[in-house]
Amino acid sequence: MNQRLEAPPSTSLSETALFFDVDGTLVALEEKPEAVVVSTSLRMLLERLIIATDGALALVSGRSIAQLDSLFKPLEFSASGVHGLERRLLPGSSHRIIEATDALDDARAELDAFTKAHPGTLFEDKGLTLALHYRMAAEHREKAAGLVRKLVSADPEKLVLLEGKMVFELKPPGFDKGRAIADFMKEPPFRGRSPIFAGDDVTDEAGFRTINQMNGVAIKVGIDDRPTEAAFGLDNVEAMLRWLEGLLDDTSKRNAGAGQ
Ligand SMILES: [Mg+2]
Q1: For residues 140 and 44, what is the distance between their CA atoms, to the nearest angstrom?
Q2: What is the architecture, at CATH level 2, of domain 13-97+175-258?
Q3: Spatial separation of the C-alpha atoms in residues 151 and 147, rounded to whole Å
Q4: 200 carries an active-site annotation
Q5: Strand 57-60 vs strand 217-221: parallel, antiparallel, or unpaired?
Q6: Whether pLDDT at 2 is above 80
Q7: How does pLDDT run across 11-70, given as a tens digit for each residue?
């Protein structure tokens, strides 16, 4: 069953805080995460949104903040990286909420060995988390799932499994995108605004739950069979970007009207 969610309502950006997942939400998914490029038009759109929200815009991604900076260069954003394990509120420097843990060391060696033995799978060491991608080798999914489950059950207090689109990711427990959004919302320029969060994947569900608790607007990007806590939906990345353009247009019309 394909779920079709209602399109999100238009809101005034001057009263809104914007939170975005990146891959699959603002940019199309690629087989390899490093193949993603950010267009000039997306950079310009985000810059206009930062201005319209007085800076209340943050990226909330599974990528590290360093990876986000190189992806969007020269733009820098308030951001949470590595599924809530890193956070940066601009102006300021990014910090890791937790330090890398030795619980990852054993898993690191096993994942590395697995991807070498199974062509098409890809091991990504993010420092604070370990990702096993199988987008180019779906036939190895079951074996990969068996390995990551074994690693988690060996040390369940230190490792949890995040299952994304064609990727398994191991991370320390206790932090997620929802907590990152809640922390941003405690501080200016986010505080007191109505939050919107858009994401496409299972790891975004924690963010959707937080948004719902705050009576914000949770937007699932993409159509698939998985259950979601998001109340609103947009079909794909293009629809997401068009909707944001529409918000900017509506906001400038409102402001022009207010000035007359
Ligand atoms: Mg995503």
Answers
A1: 40
A2: 3-Layer(aba) Sandwich (3.40)
A3: 6
A4: no
A5: unpaired
A6: no
A7: 999 999 999 999 999 999 987 778 899 999 999 999 999 999 999 999 999 999 999 999
Ligand 1 center from residue 22 Cα (angstroms): 6
Catalytic residue (one of 21, 69, 183, 204): 21
How far is Cα 163 from Cα 216, in angstroms, rounded to an integer? 25
Between strands 217-221 and 232-234, the pairing is: parallel
Q: Is the pTM of this model over 0.85?
A: yes
Identify residues whose C-beta is under 5 A from ligand 1, the ion: 21, 23-24, 200-201
Q: Assess contact for 79 and 94: CB atoms under 8 A.
A: yes
Residue ranges of the chain assigned to CATH 3.40.50.1000: 13-97+175-258
Q: Does domain 103-171 have CATH number 3.30.420.40?
A: no
Each residue of 234-247: b (16+ CB within 10 Å) or e? Answer: beebeebbebbeeb
CA distances from 112 to 13, 101, 139, 140, 142 (A): 45, 17, 18, 15, 17
